[in-house]
Amino acid sequence: MAVAAASPDICQDLGNKNSVPGEPAAQEQTSLDIDIANVVCSFRARCHLNLRMIALNGANVIYKRELGKVTMKLRRPYCTANIWSSGKIVCTGARSEDDAKKGARRCARTLQNMGFQVHFSEFKVVNVLGICAMPFTIKITLFSKHHKENASYEPELHPGVTYKIRDPKAVMKIFSTGSITCTAPCVANIQRAIEHIYPLVHEFR
């Protein structure tokens, strides 16, 4: 996934024949690649699930008795389903929202094939993790001091700056290497958050 971010640097008009006198030069566009590393979703089966039966009859399953759940690994798309007897199911590991829903539906069908009266309901994307690498390093100490309202930096606890955004709702970890991880409720928020943070960190490159 790629997003275009406008560089805050305005090209200077120094004898450029293509520039129009009295008009500002166009902002430089930078394309940033965002890697969606994990999509977490949940749904309800609306029936009681016998975890022991699932563990005995399912493929690629592990019964974690101490946690009161069964984990089921699925392929195509790859994801791991965490299944509770109450019928709540949380799927992790998908790389897109579409794959997350496909994986959740496949889990529901697998349980139906075991004889459970599963009704696929209340599906929602809970959390998305995205990773983006800025094309420059970042002076994170100066950045955190300049953005005290939203940023916190405790180098003895974590090497990155934690930056929180209210709109779009997102939490970012900003590293001096230029790497940024972003956690948000949906992929759209990840994209908007990266577009929001780019000009801010660009000042401290």
Automatic annotation (TrEMBL):
Gene Ontology terms: cellular component: cytoplasm; nucleus
GO molecular function: DNA binding
Gene Ontology biological process terms, A to Z: DNA-templated transcription initiation
Location relative to the cell: Cytoplasm; Nucleus
Source domain of life: Eukaryota
Matches recorded under InterPro entries: TBP, TBP-like, TBP_dom_sf
Transcription regulation is among the record's keywords: yes
Family: Belongs to the TBP family.
Full protein name: TATA box-binding protein-like 1
